[in-house]
Structure prediction request, 74 residues.
Amino acid sequence: MITPTPPARPGRRFSNKLRPLAVDALDQAVSDLSELAELWAQAPDGSKWRQHIARLRDVLALPIPPQDETLFAI
Prediction:
């Protein structure tokens, strides 16, 4: 499993509003319907490309905030 790590030299902050769009774009790039994913699957470094995309996605994906209210009692 690849764990997200911040860059050695942090650059500009990526807007939280853009993060879901970036994650969706990455998901589309690696989907079964993607010609890009199909071409990378044929390349010698295809698995490395997928690992990089997964790492980037993990870094961009926002953590789910904790829920303050209880929806139902257990």
